[in-house]
Predict the 3D structure of the following.
Amino acid sequence: MQILKPTIIKSNCHKIHMNLGLESYLFSNSFIQSPILYLWQNDKTIVIGRHQNPWKECNLQLMQKNSVWLQRRSSGGGAVYQDLGNHCFTFLNTFTNEDPKTINNDILINALLNLGIEAQASGRNDIVVGEKKVSGSAYQLSLGTKVNPNKIALHHGTMLIDVDQNALSQYLTPSKKKLESKGIDSVKSRVTNLKEINSTITVKQYEDELIKEFIKKYNDVEFKEFNSDQLLNIEEVKKESERLSSWEWLYQYTPQFTVNLEEKLKFGMFDVYLQVESSIIKDGRVFTDCLYPDYVTKMNQVILNKKYDFDGIKQIFNEMRIIFPQQNELSSELEEWLLKAI
């Protein structure tokens, strides 16, 4: 894609891996000579940092039940929740003597001022109203590619407008279990919705004001819009979205961690220790007073090198049912417990 004049790009797709795929395409595979404002929103999603452990940060079982997407991003930082009450922005600027971050923050802050909200930049990455954080962002610089030799500054972030605040604690609170990880714990910040400051504000009103301020800054602006089908027709976007939604990216990048699960079941007391690397069970042991020792001995072998996820647990007990068809009730009880426990 060639961007020869200031451009606003809007995605009408709400799937985060596709929206991130378009952002990556713009940043790495487009010829950019003028500023871009890319506007996008995501359906219910937990976004974790590159080196975080989803099993520690998230209640994955509840997320699966409620169709909440998990997304790992390439940058660092902590886990956050997004839904359609959250608005995402990406600025792409050719690098000049002017600080693009300051220019972009002015556009964001002026858009809020138009809605009667006085905000200011705080620290390196935030926009605050009073002491409450309403926006967080991150930055990346490209020194040039084969497609685009220009230096490009990427500034992307979110604006909290009417995000489900209950979901923040609901999905970012993992089930209680003994889990030690080398990953990075999320840092809880004091945040608020713009809706709590101005009860009449909507996402569309905010987006309209943001567009107005971008046009005011750059005057002659082009507008491009994409839906899901159009995004998938861009080969680079399709490939990147497939990578970002793959099991390998979402789970295999997880740091090494250990899990200890303990429960009293009908067949006895079960104590399960698992050593997990890149979301694969590399070592494990089941301790129990169960009266079926051959079953447990075999299970200690079967669990090795399985995925530490719902499909992996199901695979373990599919194999156990084949090997021990007479112990189907035991397999079902253990499977039901472990699917809930992880």
User: Anything to note?
Assistant: The CA atoms of residues 17 and 241 lie 5 Å apart. The radius of gyration is 24 Å. The first strand starts at residue 2 and ends at 3.
